[in-house]
Amino acid sequence: MMMKYFFPVLVASLLLAGCADSPSSAPTQKAQKVKVSPSRSMDMESLCKNEAAQRYNTGTQKIDVTGFEQFQGSYEMRGSTFRKESFVCSFDADGQFLHLSMR
């Protein structure tokens, strides 16, 4: 008779324990690799060249962008002037200009 009541309690306990061990319903966040569209990267390059031209008091045609790197949550464009002055333009994850650093 005792077995008759023990078995359903055991099954219910196992089911509840199984629910407690399952991962939470909140999704785990993973790093996302966002790709910049070609048109957006061209806009970023143009903005970088304009900022560098203004900073170095020269024309945009005398500014070369030589590298584009993506980091976790930001982008950097490296470049130089015709006088071999190096700079880095920084952008946020959405491609908005942050600042120009002279290197």
List the keywords.
single chain, 103 residues, alpha+beta, four-stranded antiparallel β-sheet, 38% helix, 29% strand, globular
What features would you describe in this structure?
By secondary structure, the chain is α+β, with helices and mostly antiparallel strands. Helix content is about 40%, strand content about 30%. It is built from 2 helices and 4 strands. The protein has a 4-stranded antiparallel β-sheet with strand order 1-2-3-4, with helices on one face. The N and C termini lie far apart (about 85 Å).
Topology, please?
Blueprint (H helix, E strand, L loop, with lengths): L1 H20 L16 H19 L6 E9 L2 E8 L4 E7 L4 E6 L1
Antiparallel strand pairs: 1-2, 2-3, 3-4
